[in-house]
Amino acid sequence: MLQGKTALVTGSTSGIGKAIVTRLAEAGANVVINGFGDADEIEAFRAGLVTDHGIKAHYANTDLTKSDLIDDMIAEASSEVGPIDILVNNAGVQHVSPIEEFPEEKWDLIIALNLSAAFHTIRFVMPHMKKAGWGRIINTASAHALVASPYKAAYVAAKHGIAGLTKVVALEGATHGLRCNAICPGYVHTPLVDGQIADTAKSRGISEEEVKRDVLLAAQPTKEFVTSEQIAEFAHFLCSPAADQINGALLPVDGGWVAQ
């Protein structure tokens, strides 16, 4: 379905992003992988996508907190595998702390990576999408784009910002064949959440199992973690013709969390 398209997925060397970039490659899109991790493992993943799906795959270990490097990444990727038709802003980081103790440098990092990076990637890819008359921008937000939780000042602020950015881009691109939506997952068991579990346990003085049961999954009526593969399938759907009239939407995949 996505043959001839090129997809850039930030934060795609693990977790949700890795599942999304894999699903888009399965659908025939050329892909740009971005993120950090073990170099050999990332290369094996990249090469496997090429071998398994017959697509082009490029890897960029770009620091998304620096806008000039984002520009360079997109220019290089466009040259290597084709102009970006599908952008998935997925990269993120988390820190859990009471606001009066929240480190300033953690605030700056979370806002830069979770919010400002999406602004920069979008502004760099919009011209091609408008010219082509087709584009899909998917922002991995969070249930925290719709509701708040204690000890997550920067993350909740960034994700609420992503919600607003999604709506603005959707309106600006609407008559140019662009669609911009945000997927708002509940708790997905990823490396990011593993770190959050440890931080929350420390800040609240409880065990990690208690965090999972009484803090995280307490918010999700299904009492189940969302899977990365479920988010990936939803992202793929948002690139399909069936989703052509979904635009500017904040779409929870959260087991009913925000329905409460």
For CATH, the homologous superfamily of the largest domain is named as NAD(P)-binding Rossmann-like Domain
| % residues in beta strands | 5-15%
Q: Summarize the biggest pleated sheet.
A: 7 strands, parallel
Order of strands, widest sheet:
3-2-1-4-5-6-7
Shape: globular
Number of self-contained structural domains: 2
Task: Output mean pLDDT.
Answer: 96
First-last Cα distance? 36 Å
Q: Which fold name is given in CATH as the topology of the largest domain?
A: Rossmann fold
What does this structure look like?
With 260 residues, this protein is of the alpha/beta class. It has two domains: 6-186 and 227-252, Rossmann fold; 187-225, no CATH class. The chain is 48% helix and 13% strand. It contains eight helices and seven strands. It has a seven-stranded parallel β-sheet, sandwiched between helices. Helix 1 (15-26) packs across helix 8 and helix 4 (104-132) runs parallel beside helix 5 (153-173). The mean pLDDT is 96.
Question: Can you describe this structure in just a few lines?
Answer:
By secondary structure, this protein is of the alpha/beta class. The protein has helices at residues 15-26, 39-53, 67-81, 104-132, 153-173, 191-204, 208-216, 228-238; strands at 6-9, 30-34, 57-60, 86-89, 135-140, 178-185, 250-253. It is built from 8 helices and 7 strands, in the order βαβαβαβαβαβαααβ.
Keyphrases for this structure?
13% strand, seven-stranded parallel sheet, 7 strands, 2 domains, alpha/beta, single chain, globular, 260 residues, Rossmann fold
